[in-house]
Every structure is written in structure tokens, then in C-alpha cells.
Amino acid sequence: MRSFNRYTDIPDEVRGAVIALGNFDGLHRGHQAVIAQVREIAAAQGAPVGIGLFRPHPYRYFKPDAPPFRLMSGGLREGLLGDLGVDVLFELPFNVALRDMDDEEFVETVLHQGLGIRHVVVGEDYGFGKNRCGNVESLTRLCADRGIGVTAVSPVGLHKLYGKYGSTEIRKALQQGDVFHAQHMLSRPWMVDGIVAMGQQRGRTINFPTANLDFGDLVRPKFGVYAVECHVAGEAEWRPAVANTGTRPTVDGDEARLEVHIFDFDRDIYGQRLTVRFRSFIRDEKKFDSFEDLRQQIARDADGARAIFGILRKGSDGIAKR
Ligand SMILES: Cc1cc2nc3c(=O)[nH]c(=O)nc-3n(C[C@H](O)[C@H](O)[C@H](O)COP(=O)(O)O)c2cc1C
Ligand SMILES: Nc1ncnc2c1ncn2[C@@H]1O[C@H](COP(=O)(O)OP(=O)(O)O)[C@@H](O)[C@H]1O
User: Fold this and answer.
1) Name one GO molecular function term (predicted).
2) What is the fold of 189-321?
3) Which of 25, 146, 279, 290 is the one with CA 20 to 30 A from 118?
4) Is the CB of residue 261 below 6 angstroms from any atom belonging to ligand 2?
């Protein structure tokens, strides 16, 4: 997949693309249906499959102080877009110039002159342009004037049992610790990735070293303990682990963090890229009276997570214990 962070000087071979416009945060089942529609139209026209999104997320641009809300890092989103058959990603810089374009200017300057788009796919309720002055009706008219096709897709991914598939619904599920529901809507486990950072180095003193990640602008899941799997960059497998998310009240932590203790693993991975996928909620985070009480609870949590993965704990002799 090729990616561009501009809408000028676009090479000829990626002009004429069929694109979906949106934020695609999470790339959930609803997003996947929209992208499938783009693939279908692009295949029929022999055109590149494209995505047009804004960076930073317009919500963040307008509300710099709003709480973290993203469902995935830019890197994960890019990787998954490639897996979904997207050939070209236009990450349009959301700045004063873009913010101030009305619907006609956006279609003319960005879609037509800039990217040379052939066809646009959006959701029925899509709004765009200065103060959201543009909608599907104006987009269709302005695009038609320039020979650009428009397809508006009706809400996709309604599920009779689980309701709507949407980024807001997934955020809510994660804030309730309901990683199963989030996983269902995403069609994959919820994942957090980042570079392993230094902590207070107390974990190793109780035989539970933990690799630490910052959530950055990602939504905070319900604080507590989870069974997770970890992927260390460069390795082939996902390693089972137990994680804590939260502010670590027992040791007076501050910023919310994700800490993972990877089972049967002993390596320095500071500075390495780690991806964590959430499998199951175990318990709420709490403040313990002593570090020793916390240590004992962590040992029980680790056994609980091992049980979820169906793996046994190895004793000091290296033999699995019941
Ligand atoms: C499985 C697990 C569960 C944890 N649960 C809690 C908890 O309920 N409350 C808490 O204050 N800290 C909890 N912690 C965080 C520990 O306080 C933290 O990992 C420990 O202080 C070591 O971190 P450090 O090496 O950065 O100092 C948990 C850690 C793990 C690995
Ligand atoms: N099983 C393991 N799970 C996670 N990290 C491990 C493991 N074994 C060794 N490590 C390493 O130890 C570090 C964590 O040790 P810890 O004492 O908890 O320090 P910190 O407070 O800096 O996280 C990790 O960042 C990683 O490099």
C-alpha cells in the first residue's frame, strides 16, 4: 500500500482511484463493509482502491483537551488497511486550510484537482466541509459536475443480537471491560501497540517483571486485570500474558499505563515494539494495603490468565505444576 500525507503532486498511477472517505478508527465490521464496496467498484473500473482520511482526527483538532478516544494507533490502522486490499491511503493534513474549505472547495481542490478521484464511497450520514456544510446530497451534485461518481452506503453491520457496529459502541464496551463485545464488533481482538518503556523496576523484584506501554491517545479500557497475548516485533508467535491497566493505586502511580507480564519469558525488551491483544477481563484494579498483598494477588491473577489460555505454571524445576 502506498501512502500520501498531502493532496498535491499525486503521481499519475494513483490518480483515478475509488476512495472511501471517513476516519476508519478501529476498522470495525461497518468500516470493512464500506471498504468492500470500494473494492467492488474499483475492480469493475480497473481503478486503485483508496482511503481518504484526516490527520489529526478532526475531533482531536477541534477538541485538543478532550479525553483520549482513539481505538487504534495509526500504524496498526495502516497495516490492516493494507490487509483489506487498500492500494493507496491519502492521509490529508487537517489544518486551517482544510478546516476552512466549504463543500464545493473541498470537492474541487482536494478530490478533483488534487487527488483526481473517480468515485467516492461514504456513509449515508456523512458530513464534511466548513462547519459540516456538506452532506451526501451536495457531495453527489458537486461530484457529478466533475464526473466523479458517489455511492452512499446505508448503515452496515446491524446485528440483531448485538446492535450497531460503531466506534462509539466499541469505546463503550472497552470502558466496561467487555472485550468480547468489542472483539465481536471489531472482528478481531482489541489491540494496543507501542514501544516498551521503563517503569519503576519493582516488577522484577517480585518475580513479575512487566513490560510497560503508554496508551497515548487511545481510549482507556476499564482499569483492571486482563488475559492478553503479546507480540514482540520480529517474532512469529503471540505469547500469552497477564496485564494490568490503570494507575497502580497501591504504588501511587499517576498516568494510566498498560503493563504486561509475559509467561515463561525472560528477555530485555525495553525499546522494542510490542503489540498486546485483549482476550478476557479478569478483575477490577484496586488499592492493596501492602505491596506483599498485591504480589500475592498478581500470582493468583497470573494463574487465572494461564487457566484461560489452558497453560500450566512451571515450577522452579521447569516441570509444569497443577
Ligand atoms: C497482573 C497484575 C495485576 C496488577 N494489579 C494491580 C492492582 O490491582 N492495583 C495496583 O495498584 N497495581 C496493580 N498492578 C501493578 C503493580 O503495582 C505494578 O506492576 C508494580 O508496581 C510494578 O511496576 P513497576 O515495575 O513499574 O514499579 C498489577 C500488575 C500486574 C502485572
Ligand atoms: N516475562 C516478562 N514479561 C515482561 N517483561 C519482561 C519479562 N521478562 C523480562 N522482561 C523485561 O523486564 C522489564 C520489566 O521489568 P520491571 O522490573 O517490571 O521494570 P519496569 O518497571 O521498567 O517495567 C520489561 O520491560 C522487559 O524488558
Assistant:
1) ATP binding
2) Elongation Factor Tu (Ef-tu); domain 3 (2.40.30)
3) 25
4) yes
